[in-house]
Amino acid sequence: MKNNLLLTIGLSVTIASFVISSCSKNNNNQPVQKSDAVSADVLKNIASLGFSTDDVKKRGDAYLVEGDILLTAANLSEASTSPNLRIAETEQYRTTNLVKNLPRTVTVSVSNLPTVYATATANAVARYNALNLTLKFQVVSSGGQIQVIGFNEGPSGGYITLGSSGFPTSAGDPYSQIQMNTNEQAYGTNPDVNYLTSVLQHEMGHCIGFRHTDYMNRAFSCGGRHVNEGSAGIGAINIPGTPTKADAGSWMLACSTGSDRTFNTNDKIALDYLY
């Protein structure tokens, strides 16, 4: 997720799309440039899956796209054939793979991060479990199926990554890691627990198969130029009962303004539909 630095530094230095997050902030309206370190073949594969090729970065054996989404080599070798979820004019998308073997409880652990991150993780888990889905989460001291770890990275191209994660495997397991930015420009010197909770909640959404709600126009939450990434031939399934206007409060919007954003009514419909 990305955060808008311009908006949030004034608050205390802010869920957004420089994740996969899910999360980053926008420091200004500068266009995001492509990384020269990523080959043309990899960029082509990323585009074929329906992801933006703006500011792609190599992270170990994976690639960071859309600000907070980590695509592995396995992701890049898969063809996108599955339909999406769609909510309102800004659409809620799911990935080809989802978590399987439901009902199921996924364990989550936090490693080598300040206490406030552990508290926020527990809060995010509680928010999901309160929805009474067939997919539940449980915090464990170590070795979780989803492990929350830290990294330190300053702003780049007008945005700062708040957190990042990936999508479920073809075997039906959740993505195994959430990376949270410990740089002071991401959350300040005294991170707000509710804000951290919302970012972790967003990144957990990616781990279980959700894409950004404003996938069709990430300028909706991030500002800057209009970015329509297309459907990549994977279709869309509209969820009955959702509105026809823009869904401004979704927990899976690409960018954040630093607020504590949780599930809105349409998010709950989408989660209940899948899980």
Short note summarizing the structure:
The chain has 275 residues and is of the alpha/beta class. The chain has one domain: Collagenase (Catalytic Domain) (3-Layer(aba) Sandwich), CATH 3.40.390. It has eight helices and 13 strands.
General form: globular
Low-confidence stretches: 4-22, 26-36, 228-238
Alpha plus pi helix count:
8
Query: What is CATH's topology name?
Result: Collagenase (Catalytic Domain)
- Tell me the total number of β-strands: 13
Classify the beta-strand content into a percent band.
Answer: 15-25%
Helix-strand string:
EHEHEEEHEEHEEEEHHHEEH
Secondary-structure-based class equals: alpha/beta
What's the number of structural domains?
1
Mean pLDDT: 76
Alpha-carbon distance between the two ends: 23 Å
- Main beta sheet: strand number and arrangement? 10 strands, mixed
Fraction of residues in helix: 10-25%
CATH C-level class is Alpha Beta
Q: Architecture, according to CATH? A: 3-Layer(aba) Sandwich
Round the Cα radius of gyration to an integer and report it: 17 Å
- Going by CATH, what is the homologous superfamily? Collagenase (Catalytic Domain)
How would you describe what is shown here?
It is a single chain. 24% of the residues lie in helices and 20% in strands. It contains eight helices and 13 strands. It has helices at residues 5-8, 40-48, 73-77, 115-129, 184-187, 193-207, 219-222, 265-274, and strands at residues 2-3, 22-26, 57-59, 62-65, 69-71, 85-86, 104-110, 135-139, 146-151, 159-166, 177-181, 237-238, 255-256. The strands form two sheets. Strands 1, 2, 3, 4, 5, 7, 8, 9, 10 and 11 form a ten-stranded mixed β-sheet that branches. InterPro entries: MetalloPept_cat_dom_sf, Peptidase_M10/M27/M57. It comes from Mucilaginibacter pocheonensis. Pfam families: Peptidase_M57.
